[in-house]
Amino acid sequence: MLSQTILDKILAKYGKETIYSADCSPLANEIGISETTVKRMFGLVGKDSPERNRKPHNSTMDIVAKWLGYNSYKELLQEIGEGDFSSEFTSLQKIETKDLTVGTQIQIRYEPARVLVMTYVGDGDFLVNESKNSKLLKGDRISLTSLIIRHEMIVSEVVRDGRSLGGYRGAKDGGLTSLEIIV
Predict the structure, then answer these.
(1) Which DSSP string corresponds to 111-176?
(2) Closest C-alpha to 133, from 150, 116, 149
(3) Residue 116 in contact with residue 134, Cβ under 8 Å?
(4) What is the pLDDT at residue 2?
(5) 52 neighbors 46 (Cβ within 8 angstroms)
(6) What does each C-alpha distance from 12 to 19, 26, 127 come to in angstroms?
(7) pLDDT number for residue 144
(8) Is 147 exposed, middle or buried (0-12, 13-18, 19+ CB in 10 A)?
(9) In this predicted model, which residue has the larger pLDDT, 158 or 40?
């Protein structure tokens, strides 16, 4: 569920004091989000449902904020005094190179339609085996310490044909969408 302040703003704009399940579809259509998201935001899912406490994605909340007349979700949160984005506790789906053994193969995906398959060769280095729609190429040797879902991929060095190309930032818009150890 969202903070009561945001829920109150949504209700005020929608012209209701409270919302029921029957209101979710029309409200979702008006805002431009899914009915299920509206139900989650207002806690109108089962008490035991894992969806009950799931927060909407920031991109969804940007849509809600714009419907409410703000430029962004961040701007809305700052106005209502909930705009501390400096830190948060979260669980991360990640792979740390320190936990890998030499020969481990990893496949990662990120938008738009980028796929990399790489083999861990030790000391934080990977050899790119396959590259689809990426600036990294098959045969590149890359150095990194971790890969984290929904986060940018930061490569400290790319070596191509024995020559260092410097660092590389991938998945800048939206982060990694898939991260999988395949061998």
Answers:
(1) TTTEEEEEEEEETTEEEEEEEES-SS-TT-EEE-SEEEBTS-EEEEEEEETTEEEEEEEE-TTT-E
(2) 116
(3) yes
(4) 76
(5) yes
(6) 11, 15, 55
(7) 94
(8) buried
(9) 158
Q: What's the DSSP call for residue 69?
A: T
Give dist(CA 147, CA 133) in Å, integer.
19
Residue 137: both structure tokens together: 């190429």
Place of tokens 């920031």: 58
- Which residue is associated with the tokens 């991929």? 153
Q: Cα(25)–Cα(4) distance, rounded to whole angstroms?
A: 20
For residue 37, give both structure tokens.
């998201």
Question: What is the DSSP pairing of strand 141-143 with strand 163-170?
Answer: unpaired
**Neighbouring-strand partners of residue 157:** 143
Quote the CA–CA distance of 121 and 102 in Å, as a whole number: 5
- For 137, phi and psi rounded to 5 degrees? -120, 160
pLDDT in tens, 3-42: 888 999 999 999 998 898 899 999 999 999 999 889 888 8
Collect all residues with Cβ–Cβ distance below 8 Å to 177 and sequence separation of at least 6: 109, 110, 111, 149, 150, 171
- Tell me the two tokens of residue 136: 């990294």
pTM: 0.54
